[in-house]
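Example record for the data management plan.
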Amino acid sequence: MLRALMFILPIALTIYAFIDCLNTPEDETRHLPKVAWVFIILLFWIVGPVVWLVAGKARRGPAGGRGTGEWRRRRTEWVAPDDNPEFLDSLRDGGKERGADEERGTGKDDEALLEDWEADLRRREEELKRREGGDGPSRGDDDPKQS
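Corresponding structural encoding:
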């Protein structure tokens, strides 16, 4: 088991450092360009990942990291839709626009389309009933594309 760990640990560390290096923005890398760090990690697969983790990335610890003010600023950037007054106002405005559309007659157009659709549906159902009963014309006779 210990022998396997000697091979698995460097490979896992190399994979982790490689992915970490690829996901790190260019401005957060230290001492060398990002491409150079990728080559160091891959070519020196035992030492390269350790060097990347120690000296390659500008890391911020809990003490020197983000302050609570920065966290609060970032936290207030996104607001849930239920709590966002701009979103709620846009919903209210959308309702007013819909009411104006109905006054202009688009609601009546929708009703006419619905009635036409229902009439077409009733006609098709009657045709199917006639076909099943044997009363209607054959399949080739009622196809509008062939006539």
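Summary line stored alongside the record: The radius of gyration is 34 Å.
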